[in-house]
């Protein structure tokens, strides 16, 4: 009888759970696996998720986690997906990205959608080494140096640039402005209000001022030197005396 207990235990578990056994690798409810355009796709749109789910097949090429309640993406959240090419995290409530959020995707990820979240700033480290096209529109950006550095690392999705607008956390004079237009006039990674642009202007003014001072010093020296020359008495040319012999000869001729 005791020998039958190990064999009956799984059956009792199935009966006790209504005919199904939970599996940690089973996709969450309202998530499903599909094949789209010949590529393995995992869709978890509008699934009520508050964290990146487990059970995503490691051969997934397209992953849709849009329209959920994700507030952050931890380090290495997708590193078990070695062939992932497209990642949709739009329409969540993301406020934080780890600097290693996309670790392990450097050689594969090419499309990333972070639009319509609550991101005010993102770490540059999160995008280092990625060759991606990213959508950053519809977020309340702080419009700081970090965002400017990110835009130097990535390519923006077509038509998404105008949607990158400075939010309430930005400098008061920047709120509501398009970030791309702003960066054409102001460098945000410098010091002070005007950033590097103002620092460059100051350096240029200092250099020009130095050259003007050198020119003025030279002119002053030149004027004083000429003034001293005019004050010196003129030297009279020496009068050559006629020898007596020449004088007597001249008298004889006359």
Task: Describe the overall structure.
With 254 residues, the chain is of the alpha/beta class. It has a domain at 28-187: Ribonuclease Inhibitor (Leucine-rich repeat, LRR (right-handed beta-alpha superhelix)), CATH 3.80.10.10. It has five helices and nine strands; from the N terminus they run H-E-E-E-E-E-E-E-E-H-E-H-H-H. It has helices at residues 5-16, 145-153, 179-183, 195-231, 244-253, and strands at 32-36, 39-43, 62-64, 72-73, 86-88, 96-97, 111-113, 133-135, 155-156. It has a seven-stranded mixed sheet, covered by helices on one side. Strands 4-6 form a two-stranded parallel ribbon. Strand 8, helix 2 and strand 9 form a beta-alpha-beta unit. Residues 1-6, 8-23, 192-199 and 249-254 have low confidence and may be disordered.
Strand adjacency order, main sheet: 1-2-3-5-7-8-9
| Major β-sheet annotation | 7 strands, mixed
Oligomer: single chain
CATH class identity of the domain at 28-187: Alpha Beta
> What low-confidence regions span 5 or more consecutive residues with pLDDT below 50?
1-6, 8-23, 192-199, 249-254
Question: How many β-strands, per DSSP?
Answer: 9
Please indicate the percent range of residues in DSSP E strands (runs of 2 or more). Answer: 5-15%
Q: Would you tell me which CATH topology of the domain at 28-187 applies?
A: Leucine-rich repeat, LRR (right-handed beta-alpha superhelix)
Structural class: alpha/beta
Distance between the termini: 172 Å
Relevant CATH superfamily of the domain at 28-187 = Ribonuclease Inhibitor
Helix run count = 5
Global outline: elongated
Mean pLDDT: 81
Approximately how much helix is present in the residues? 25-40%
Taking all Cα atoms into account, the compactness measure Rg is 41 Å
The helix/strand order is: HEEEEEEEEHEHHH
Label the CATH architecture of the domain at 28-187.
Answer: Alpha-Beta Horseshoe
């Amino acid at each position: 009888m005791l020998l039958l207990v190990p064999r009956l235990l799984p059956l009792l578990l199935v009966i006790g759970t209504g005919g199904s056994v939970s599996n940690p690798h089973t996709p969450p409810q309202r998530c499903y696996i599909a094949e789209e355009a010949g590529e393995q796709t995992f869709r978890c749109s509008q699934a009520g998720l508050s964290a990146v789910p487990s059970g995503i097949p490691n051969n997934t090429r397209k992953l849709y986690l849009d329209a959920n309640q994700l507030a952050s993406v931890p380090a290495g959240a997708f590193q078990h997906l070695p062939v992932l090419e497209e990642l949709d995290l739009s329409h969540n409530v993301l406020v934080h990205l780890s600097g290693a959020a996309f670790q392990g995707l450097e050689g594969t990820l090419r499309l990333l959608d972070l639009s319509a979240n609550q991101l005010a700033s993102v770490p540059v480290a999160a995008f280092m080494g990625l060759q991606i096209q990213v959508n950053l529109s519809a977020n309340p950006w702080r419009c700081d140096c970090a965002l400017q550095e990110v835009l130097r690392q990535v390519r923006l999705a077509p038509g998404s640039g105008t949607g990158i607008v400075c939010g309430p956390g930005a400098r008061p004079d920047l709120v509501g402005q398009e970030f791309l237009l702003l960066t054409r006039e102001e460098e945000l990674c410098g010091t002070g209000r005007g950033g590097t642009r103002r620092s460059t202007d100051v350096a240029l003014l200092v250099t020009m001022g130095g050259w003007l001072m050198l020119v003025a010093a030279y002119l002053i020296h030149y004027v004083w030197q000429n003034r001293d020359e005019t004050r010196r008495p003129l030297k009279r040319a020496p009068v050559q005396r006629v020898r007596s012999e020449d004088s007597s000869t001249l008298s004889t001729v006359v």
